[in-house]
Design a protein that fits this description.
alpha/beta; 5-stranded parallel β-sheet; Rossmann fold
């Protein structure tokens, strides 16, 4: 059976490959599957499979217009020696939970899990749909998507990529990773503003019909590597299925036993993937949504009111410094009973006034979710405590999740076994991590801290860090938000 995708804001339906190519629907909506397929291989069978094999069994259900050979080629090309472990996404037991380490790819953040495969899905989709234009990837990043997308698309024929990031809103390591990126088809641009400004600027370019016509005339068409692209979301479902089947295979859970999942959440894509996994039949009980001080999602889950009209906080977990959680629209559409008119009404309110309120009936459909947030002090204290208790070092985003998990236990006394999505290597946020463990580290340089982290964690320094120690800065463009379209024109000549 072919599974089609439709826009959250209209009636347009497309194939999986068309949805991946477009990124955003013509009406500004996000593509969602017309129905969520059920897993068709028993968990006990999946438990015997490798990550690549599990990926195929999950992704074949969504990407039905890809042949078996095409999809397996994409998967094998993505999950290879770029990852520093055969397991791809290992589970580490610590502090009464299972940390799902999603940072063993080329850029040491969970975005690698989807962005290693997206270029292969996209170029395969282009061939399937007879696309002659060069594909231009436009991406806004709060820190991690940018580098993972750049690494994925660098040197890929028939594509170019432009990444916009908030100039003063990412960690020094994150920025160095991006601005040292090699590849003639890559462009990195700092903007005066925050992530939401960058994301809004990118969405405006997608919605600009005149710009699209101008690009088409010159042999280009836009697509997205942000999590608004369904080609980002589908690969993320895989690691939740994989995590459960590892627990089952290792005898940590019995077949059918429920688990909880905790996800540090900004743009809502990662936790939405866990929600989709649950709809597919994976026995997930609670979806625990962990926010930092930009707690727009916690407030929404508590009150049913989404309100971005608040101070934007710069925190030590910058990938979550987001007030407009784009992927939440997919969940809103789902809890509105797939009513695109209701979704359009709410998204229009968000655009005009910066807020909307869902109905009581919609709120009832969010009972699987629990939300809470961690302050900067909470985050720092959690890193210190887990290190002192166990010797395990986690990054700031994972610490937000671990702290919120502690609050969930206090609130509910729920003893269900729990997987925490560990979304970045501590090496990506060395200063925040090391100063949390001991203030004495604050006087050291960024790369001195890398060596100190290596000593205390006994984890090898990732290649991604060693590579940028002496790498030259290749991208130094900085612009205002309204200049973003011109920067793209200049890059494409």
């Amino acid at each position: 059976m072919e599974l089609l995708f439709k826009s959250t804001r209209g009636t347009q339906t497309v194939t999986a490959s068309e949805a991946i190519l477009k990124g955003l629907a013509d009406d500004g909506g996000l593509f969602v599957p017309v129905s969520i397929p059920k897993l068709d291989v028993p968990a006990a069978e999946l438990a015997k499979m490798s990550y690549r094999q599990v990926a195929y069994e999950v992704m074949k259900l969504f990407l039905t217009d890809f042949t078996e050979a095409e999809l397996k080629h994409c998967i094998d090309s993505a999950y290879d020696s770029k990852f520093d472990t055969e397991l791809i996404a290992p589970l580490v037991e610590a502090q009464g939970a299972y940390f799902l380490e999603l940072f063993h790819g080329a850029t040491i953040a969970f975005k690698d899990m989807a962005l290693s495969i997206l270029p292969h899905l996209l170029t395969t989709a282009a061939k399937k749909n007879d696309v002659k234009n060069e594909i231009v990837i436009l991406t806004a990043t709060s820190g991690d998507t940018g580098k993972a997308a750049l690494a994925g698309f660098a040197g890929v024929k028939g594509t170019r990529i432009v990444v916009f990031y908030p100039k003063n809103g990412v960690s020094p390591i994150q920025e160095k990773q991006m601005v040292t990126q090699k590849g003639d088809n890559t462009k990195v641009v700092g903007i005066h503003g925050n992530f939401d400004d960058a994301q809004t600027g990118v969405k405006k370019m997608f919605a600009d019909k005149e710009l699209a016509a101008e690009m088409d005339k010159k042999g280009f068409q836009f697509s997205s590597a942000n999590s608004i692209n369904i080609g980002r979301l589908v690969p993320q479902i895989v690691y939740y299925v994989y995590a459960y089947t590892r627990l089952l295979g290792d005898g940590k859970v019995s077949d059918g036993e429920s688990i909880n999942v905790v996800v540090p959440t900004g743009n809502f894509g990662n936790i939405l993937a866990a929600f989709y996994a649950k709809q597919m039949g994976l026995p997930i009980a609670k979806l625990i949504c962990a926010s930092n001080e930009n707690k727009v999602l916690f407030d929404f889950l508590s009150t049913g009111i989404y309100d971005r009209n608040r101070e934007f906080m710069l925190t030590s977990s910058p990938s979550m410094d987001i007030l407009i959680s784009s992927n939440l629209e997919r969940l809103i559409y789902y809890i509105a009973g797939a009513d695109s008119n209701k979704n359009v009404e709410l998204m229009s309110q968000l655009s005009k006034s910066g807020k909307y309120e869902i109905t009581e009936e919609m709120s009832h459909k969010l009972s699987d979710f629990y939300g809470n947030y961690a302050s900067e002090e909470d985050t720092s204290a959690t890193i210190k405590k887990i290190y002192e208790d166990t010797g395990y070092v986690i990054d700031t985003h994972t610490a937000v999740a671990a702290n919120v998990y502690g609050k969930y236990i206090s609130d509910t006394d729920d003893k269900t076994k729990t997987v925490i999505a560990s979304t970045a290597s501590p090496y990506k946020f060395t200063r925040s991590v090391m100063v949390s463990i001991d203030n004495k580290y604050d006087s050291m340089g960024d790369f001195e801290l890398v060596d100190e982290l290596n000593k205390i964690s006994k984890v090898d320094v990732p290649d991604a860090i060693n590579e940028i120690r002496t790498a030259a800065v290749l991208h130094d463009t900085v612009c205002d938000v309204e200049e973003m379209p011109q920067v793209v024109r200049d890059f494409l000549n």
